[in-house]
Amino acid sequence: MLEIVVPEREYWDPIKEEFIKKRTTLRLEHSLLSVSKWESKWKVPFLSKESKTLEQTIDYIRCMTLTQNVDPTIYHNLPADAID
Q1: DSSP class of residue 51?
Q2: Could you give the CA distance from residue 25 to residue 9 in angstroms, rounded to a whole number?
Q3: What are 21-40's pLDDT values in tens digits?
């Protein structure tokens, strides 16, 4: 299992119309289920020599996430080293 800590940042919550500060720890697990979810969405094989777009990479991280009720905006604020 892999854990990624997303540092505290200030986010705009459009529903509540307020700024919030949040630090999040994501628990991730690379598995056949994660790969299957990703391939179902993107309709391409995950294990290939083709490069993945940033959007595809972030989506795979989302598919690997075991942490429940993660704010979707968190994925676009991941540290660059975590994405790599």
Answers
A1: P
A2: 13
A3: 778 899 999 999 999 999 99
d(CA 64, CA 57): 11
Q: Report the distance separating Cα 58 and Cα 55, nearest Å.
A: 5
For residue 52, the 8-state DSSP code is P
Tokens 């993107």 sit on residue: 42
Distance CA 80, CA 71 (A): 18
Q: How far apart (Å, rounded) are the C-alpha atoms in residues 74 and 26?
A: 9
Beta-bridge partners for 2: 28
14, two tokens: 């459009």
CA gap 52, 46 in Å, rounded: 9
3-state DSSP call for residue 48? Answer: coil
Evaluate if pTM is beyond 0.90: no
CA separation for the pair 63, 77 (Å, rounded): 16
